[in-house]
Write a structure and sequence with these properties.
heterodimer, A: about 220 residues, alpha/beta, Rossmann fold, about 35% helix, about 20% strand, B: about 120 residues, alpha+beta, hypothetical protein PF0899 fold, elongated, binds guanosine-5'-triphosphate, binds magnesium ion, binds zinc ion
Chain lengths: ~220, ~120
């Protein structure tokens, strides 16, 4: 027997990408603007989603998909308590959400009633960046106590972002954090990236983010 | 890290293409992976040995063609290769660059064997 070479030339994650395209199609069909939120564990993803709901609940119905590696519903319960529909997906130990998992979650949300869908990805700065989910934008919640060197250490996640949140600005007096150094790193990886420093604790700066999101949703609807 | 999911994707893609080509055995998997993708060859090999067991891919040799990262300076248009992230342009010192190579992440080809009888 002799070996034959069969050309393939296909992206390794092409099956995921196809699934992601289906997710996007479903969202667009229902006019739902969607956000994939990434961050390290504890950066404040859930707090940020709750603040967003608080600021925009009069204008938008926001559905949330909570991704976690363990079978807990802690984060989803908080969202439901805040009056919005939420679905918890358990990745079964996986370090990131994949498009197929999101697809299961999307189908459990009342898509036709929603204006915005927010996905809270698994807390991790490396893996989620590699998996396209089909959402309209990628957002990272960085937080002050994590340190100002994160763009230099986790460049891949910063490259794929559409918007950046710097959370826990209320803690700047207590931790060593050079905002200029942080933002320079971001600028190198993703020039001109729109950035909102804010505090989910005090609510400082959340207004600017909420206004920006409103504009994005409006543009999204007009662009269709 | 997400090497397990990546390895599963490689296996599915390889099996799909091997079946299409009516292979009886897959002996080689040729991957092209850019320097900037955060994938560890050894752990892919490790997962591969486990998950390819009892498939026609069992024992196939994984080859990694690593593509070095090449950036292009947006100010002077010079292309340059980098050993590590966030390296400025060696000509003009600018940090404004775009990635030309280094993000590749695909299955290039597979090596298969066919049943001799069927070829005849
Ligand atoms: N001081 C301060 N604490 C905050 C702020 N935002 C969130 N926290 C706290 O940070 C901790 C983690 O917040 P979460 O919102 O649960 O973070 P998360 O990213 O969703 O965490 P995981 O889902 O577990 O990865 C909680 O104790 C929050 O109260 C902030 O702006 N300032
Ligand atoms: Mg959370
Ligand atoms: Zn230059």
């Amino acid at each position: 027997m002799s070996a034959i070479r069969v050309p393939v030339v296909e992206k390794i994650l092409s099956a995921n990408d196809r699934m992601a395209d289906e997710n996007r199609f479903l969202l667009d069909q229902n006019n739902v603007f969607s956000i994939n939120i990434m961050a390290s564990p504890g950066a404040g993803k859930t707090s940020f989603i709750l603040q967003t709901i608080k600021h925009l609940s009069n204008e938008f119905k926001i559905g949330v998909i909570e991704g976690d590696t363990a079978p807990v519903t802690i984060d989803a319960d908080k969202i439901i308590k805040a009056g919005m529909p939420a679905v918890q997906i358990n990745t079964g130990g996986d370090c990131h959400l994949e498009a197929a998992m999101l697809s299961d979650g999307i189908k459990q949300l009342p898509l036709n009633e929603l204006d915005v869908m927010i996905v809270e990805n698994v807390g991790n700065l490396i893996c989620p960046a590699a998996w396209y989910l089909g959402t309209h934008i990628n957002l990272l919640v960085a937080s002050v106590p994590e340190g100002d060197d994160k763009p230099y250490k986790y460049p891949n996640i910063y490259r794929g972002l559409n918007v950046l949140i710097i959370n826990k600005t209320d803690l700047t007096p207590y931790v060593e954090y050079n905002m200029d150094y942080f933002r320079k790193g971001v600028e190198l990886l993703n020039p001109g990236l729109i950035t909102f420093p804010l505090s989910c604790r005090t609510g400082d700066g959340v207004d600017a983010w909420a206004e920006w999101l409103k504009t994005q949703v409006k543009q999204y609807r007009q662009g269709k | 890290m997400h090497e397990l999911s990546v390895t599963e994707s490689i296996l599915n893609l390889a099996l799909e293409n091997a079946n299409k080509a009516q292979a009886v055995k897959v002996t080689g998997i040729n991957l092209v992976i850019g320097q900037l993708s955060s994938i560890v060859d050894d752990s892919i090999q490790f997962y591969w040995d486990t998950i390819s067991e009892d498939t026609i891919c069992q024992g196939a040799k994984l080859s990694f063609n690593r593509i070095p990262a090449v950036l292009q300076c947006q100010d002077c248009k010079k292309e340059y290769s980098i050993a590590q992230e966030l390296t400025p342009c060696p000509v003009c010192g600018s940090y404004r660059s775009v990635i030309i190579h280094g993000e590749e992440f695909y299955l290039d080809s597979i090596e298969i064997e066919k049943d001799q009888e069927m070829i005849k």
